[in-house]
Amino acid sequence: MTTLLTLTTSRRPDGVTELTAVGEIDMSNTDALATAIETTDGPLVIDLTGIEYLDSAGLSVLFRHADRIELVATPLLAPVLEVSGLAELTTVHGLG
């Protein structure tokens, strides 16, 4: 069963592409997340404030692109991003 995930790309005022994710990220939909990330050029901001669940498969996708992404997250995701070590590899906004 596929978990609902909505991905929307937009251009921020500074010209950087932003990918907004809403729903849950798990092994059933990480291909869509990977494709959305891989089809953008240059730096990418990923807004995870609408994510209610993020599993290890989703983290794996984010890790693969840690050198070119920044994340915007809620305190709900803070433990996952910090314990996994992803918060040490990329900039994460909104954890405090």
UniProtKB/TrEMBL annotation:
Protein name in UniProt: Anti-anti-sigma factor
Organism: Streptomyces griseoviridis
Domain STAS: from-to ranges: 6-62
